[in-house]
Every structure is written in C-alpha cells, then in structure tokens.
Amino acid sequence: MTAPTMLDNVVAEEIINVIRSKFDLDAASKIEVKSIEVDQEEHKIRIEILITTTERPEALAKGYFGLTGKVREALGSDWSGFFPVITPQINSGMHA
Amino acid sequence: MPDAKLADGHLAVARRLATTKRPTQSEIRRSISSAYYAVFHALARTCANSLVGRTPSQRPNKAWVEVYRGLNHGVCRKACEQANTVAFPACIQEFADAFHQLQEYRHKADYDPDIKFSKADGETWYEIARLSMSSLRSANNVDKKAFAAWVLISTQGAKNARKANNAN
C-alpha cells in the first residue's frame, strides 16, 4: 500500500483538536494551526502552530511534552511511517 | 576524569540566555541550541552509565568515554523517530519524541535566518529540555539500558535482531 500524499480534512481537524486539548490553555489564549505539510522525502508531517497566550513557559512546555504521541495517534495507521514535527511559535504579546 | 555534568551545564546556559531581560535573537538562538545539547549530553551520559557503569572507580573510564562519544546526532534522531515501534515506557517514548523535536528546532535556531524567535520561545524550549531530562532520568535501569542500545547500535545485525524480537 502506498502512503497518501496529503492529509484529509478529518485527520487535520482531529490533529487540531488534539493540540488544543493537550495544551489546555485558558480561554484568553489562542492556538492556531498555521500549516500542516507532508514531507514525502523525509517522511515527516510538519505542523506549524501559533500560540498567543499569557501562560507561563512551564505550562506551555507541559502542554507540548507528550504531544507528539497524541498527534501520532490522531494520524492513525495510514501515516505510521511519518514523524509529526510540531513547531510552535509563541506570541506572548498579550502581556502589554 | 570526564565531566559528567555537561548536560546540567548546557541547561543552565539555556536558562540564563532565555531569561535575560531583553534577549537578542542570537541569545535566544543560542539558548535553544543549548537546550538541545543539554538533552543530547543527558542521553550520552545515560548511555555510558547504563552500559559501562555509573561509579568511576568501578568501571573502565576509557570505555565510558567511548560510549559517551559514540552517540551520533543523526543516528540517534532516526532511532528516536522509530522508538514508538517498540514497547518503551512512556517516560522514554516521550523523551525520544522530545529529543527529535528539539533537534529539528535546534537546526532552525542555528541555521534559518528567516525565523524571528520570541523570548517565550526560548523559555519554553528550555522548559521542554528540562522536562525531557527529568523524564529520561525517571526511567528504570533496565529500560535505560535497552534505550541506550537502541540509540547507539544501528548495524544491520542489530536491525535483524530487532525484527526477530518484534516477530516473537
């Protein structure tokens, strides 16, 4: 069986839900998934997220640690050979 | 005597650079890089302690250094990428995943001039490295030995043995 070349909307939506749930940030915070790209050459799924929050780095790190496994589960067996590279960009601009 | 505290030293540097009042881009980038190297050295030390011995007076110290320095960034990343295919406990699996993510991010911090990092990025990756090291250290000795073999040995023979183990 050949690997699919792009994520379907259901899987992408599931990944977004998993990310939001794992971080579990307060209502004033915002998590946006900027992009999800499949890198066929490297066998990676590159997920870029933008987090706008006043939460402490300790809380953000706790949310991130263990997230890879949850995203891997959400990707399911079709993507079992692909590693999800999750890159957060943290905007703490709400401090002002 | 080898310096066995490099991991904690790199982690302290990562913290210092990230928590400076107004860190420059170079300081944040060096902080992220140090966070990765903290985790790398923590793993190298775990490998050497697990496979050769923890107590300097009761181990061959040259062999300890050889194992410590035997850890290769690329081979280790690949091994961490595939750690979920075997039954490592959560503390090691989560370490392996974080190691891979830290290495990816370290490459961006070291080489990609297009990215602008925030102070919060540096502080958060320092915390991720700290959690990763703590997670690895919480593993029991048997699992540390198994993981050390997993990240250090990538010969065809080892791969064949792993295939056979998975089949049983």
Describe the structure.
The complex is a heterodimer of chains A (96) and B (168). Chain A starts with 8 loop residues before the first helix and ends in a 5-residue tail after the last strand. In chain A, 33% of the residues lie in helices and 29% in strands. Chain A has 96 residues and is of the alpha+beta class. Chain A has helices at residues 9-23, 57-64, 67-75, and strands at residues 30-39, 44-52, 83-91. In chain A, strand 1 (30-39) and strand 2 form a beta hairpin. With 168 residues, chain B is mainly α. Chain B has one domain (6-167). In chain B, 73% of the residues lie in helices and 0% in strands. In chain B, helix 1 packs antiparallel against helix 2, helix 2 (25-51) crosses helix 7 and helix 4 (73-81) packs across helix 5. The model of chain B has no long low-confidence stretch (mean pLDDT 95). Classes of the chains: A alpha+beta (96), B mainly alpha (168). Chain A binds chain B through residues 57-58, 60-62, 64-66, 68-69, 72, 83, 85-92, and chain B through 81, 84, 90, 93-94, 97-98, 100-101, 104-105, 108, 118-121, 123-128, 130-132, 135.
Summarize the structure.
The complex is a heterodimer of chains A (96) and B (168). Chain A has three helices and three strands. Chain A has 96 residues and is an alpha+beta fold.
